[in-house]
Amino acid sequence: DAKTTQPPSMDCAEGRAANLPCNHSTISGNEYVYWYRQIHSQGPQYIIHGLKNNETNEMASLIITEDRKSSTLILPHATLRDTAVYYCIVTYTGNQFYFGTGTSLTVIP
Amino acid sequence: DGGITQSPKYLFRKEGQNVTLSCEQNLNHDAMYWYRQDPGQGLRLIYYSQIVNDFQKGDIAEGYSVSREKKESFPLTVTSAQKNPTAFYLCASSPARRAETQYFGPGTRLLVL
Predict the structure, then answer these.
(1) Do B41 and A101 count as a contact with CB atoms less than 8 A apart?
(2) How far are the Cα atoms of A4, A29, A41, A63 from residue A68, in angstroms, in the given order?
(3) Given this model, what pLDDT does residue B100 score?
């Protein structure tokens, strides 16, 4: 499975959009991009995933570039409860996930 | 409520003892997984099982053992051979189909005294 690169930390003002980038330049054509988040000392929570097209659900939007080498997770109106570590994962099977160190997002009041 | 339960939330063990961590799911998922997380690090896969009575080693299986006698249960034993067992252990499950998401339990924090 392809590996990913994420910034170690980001800040976002409450109520503003949080845009979390992820590079996955070695992604292959049949690999999906997943996003999870982990609030301190809890199990990771699934957010969204996609293959080629942009995706949106009640939690977030996922924007995948046309060449699929990078993606951005967008939390449209960040709240304090969105403070967490966000993991970008690329996988073919969907059942062998490689969790890197992720991006620690802090939402500031 | 459907979900994944892990017990206990905190577990203490004396050095040299084996300890078993429980993971139960009532989501009717075929696949189950065990991960380990150390402070400030991401999750690392220990073992996974795609179906009852079958399981595969993950990236850091040494010092651990599992069983999958029932679909809903996937206990993890941390043996005395695991040199640094103090960590946060997370169990997950998913339908055994490609591109399905994994759902995680609340975790068990193991502390070796």
Answers:
(1) yes
(2) 12, 8, 32, 10
(3) 74
